[in-house]
Write a structure and sequence with these properties.
Structural class: mainly alpha
Number of helices: 3
Shape: flat
Helix content: over 70%
Strand content: under 5%
Number of strands: 0
Distance between the termini: 42 Å
Length: 81
Amino acid sequence: MAYIRHFVMTTLLFLAVSTLTPPTAQAQCAMCTLNAENSTKEGNMQGKGLNDGILFLLAMPFLIGAGVGLLWYKKFRVKSN
């Protein structure tokens, strides 16, 4: 019972701290923001490259996780006879 109470209190404290602190991080650096804004003007294709780079960086952790999961599944699955 004490374990559940401790878990709930810790979770509530974490949620309170994470929601009450103001966000201070910027989404992009000034150089990336300027590049993204200027890419839409005059038909430049730099914005497409920037978006492709973001998607590549987003996909890599998921692909690595899927690879590790597949290896784990193949190594530890139980074959039924």
